[in-house]
Specification:
195 residues
């Protein structure tokens, strides 16, 4: 990975966080984390799932050790591995197993975003899927304490999902495309499928 590639991936991810996650209020808790600079974004150079698992272990342990007032949450962006959504989805079981192996179950959890994210029971082009679509495959490391605080401040967390769906259906594909969230790192520079 070149420095220019890493910068492109970071810029694309930050644009997505600003314009979609915060701008569309897809996560009402993201703004304060971003404004207070407690979001860590890491670009993984992994080109195989095994290498990504090592990066994930490193970042899970780092987040667990970090002061929450300095690093609340971490995004691991991995543009060179798991570009196929089914491969990515399969990898999530290994990610959850790693959390258990590191004895961090109940402390940290892994959420997921992908350019081709598709909820079960939806068609690939359904706008509902956009709530979990990111420019590149991304693992989101969250503190369980943060989730508990968020739930306490907003007991009806289903309302967030419903509001997201309403927003995405209102703006439609045209509105989403207007956000200019397409990745600037060409696919030719990224792996498309792992063997």
């Amino acid at each position: 990975m070149t420095g220019e590639q890493e910068k492109t991936v970071l810029d694309d991810t930050k644009r997505w966080v600003q314009r979609a996650v915060i701008g569309l209020n897809l996560c009402p808790f993201a703004k304060s984390v971003e404004v207070n600079q407690r979001l860590r974004v890491v670009v993984s150079a992994a080109r195989a799932p095994e290498d990504l698992l090592k990066d994930l272990a490193h970042e899970l342990l780092a987040l667990n050790r970090a002061d929450p007032d300095e690093t609340e949450t971490t995004l691991i962006v991995h543009p060179w591995v798991l570009n196929d959504f089914l491969d990515f989805n399969d990898f999530l079981g290994a990610a959850d197993a790693l959390v258990d192996d590191l004895e961090l179950d109940g402390v940290l959890q892994v959420a997921s975003f992908h350019p081709d994210y598709q909820f079960e029971g939806t068609d690939p082009d359904d706008v509902d899927n956009l709530s979990n679509r990111s420019p590149y495959p991304t693992l989101h490391l969250l503190r369980e304490e943060s989730i508990e605080r968020a739930v306490e401040s907003m007991p009806d967390t289903d309302a967030i999902y419903e509001a997201n769906i309403d927003t995405l259906r209102r703006i439609g594909r045209k509105g989403w495309d207007a956000l200019d969230l397409a990745p600037k790192l060409p696919m030719s520079q990224r792996a498309t499928r792992e063997d």
